[in-house]
Design goal:
11 strands
Length: about 120
């Protein structure tokens, strides 16, 4: 069993930055794929960024590419999402998710989810 605990959300003005953290309990295997999703009110949950734990390859939604950076610290079992140049449309609840064996961007592929952290970007 894996538990994911997110932190780092908050309120920021447009153009500002935030860093989200997600700490995973339990063993993380090299085949693990960890990702951040977000869900705005009235919208579907969408993939934001993902990282393959073993090789470190990263993947981004087009809308955040160049502004967000996903990274992981293996020794801490923690994945980070550095968010720069934030826009009001980035406002959402952000979720950390873990897929034990693949690297799909589909939320249905993920085995474990965090509780979510609110990010609000004011204009």
């Amino acid at each position: 069993q894996v538990q994911l605990v997110e932190s780092g959300g908050g309120v920021v003005q447009a153009g500002g930055s935030l860093r989200l953290s997600c700490k995973a309990s339990g063993r993380i295997y090299s085949s693990t794929f960890m990702a951040w999703f977000r869900q705005a009110p009235g919208k579907e949950r969408e993939f934001v960024a993902g990282i393959r734990w073993g090789v470190g390859n990263t993947y981004y939604h087009d809308s955040v590419s160049g502004r967000f950076t996903i990274s992981r610290v293996s020794a801490e079992n923690t994945v980070y999402l550095q968010m720069n140049s934030l826009k009001p449309e980035d406002t959402a609840v952000y979720y950390c998710a873990l897929d034990r064996g693949g690297y799909s961007r589909m939320s249905s592929s993920f085995d474990y989810w965090g509780q979510g952290t609110q990010v609000t970007v004011s204009s």
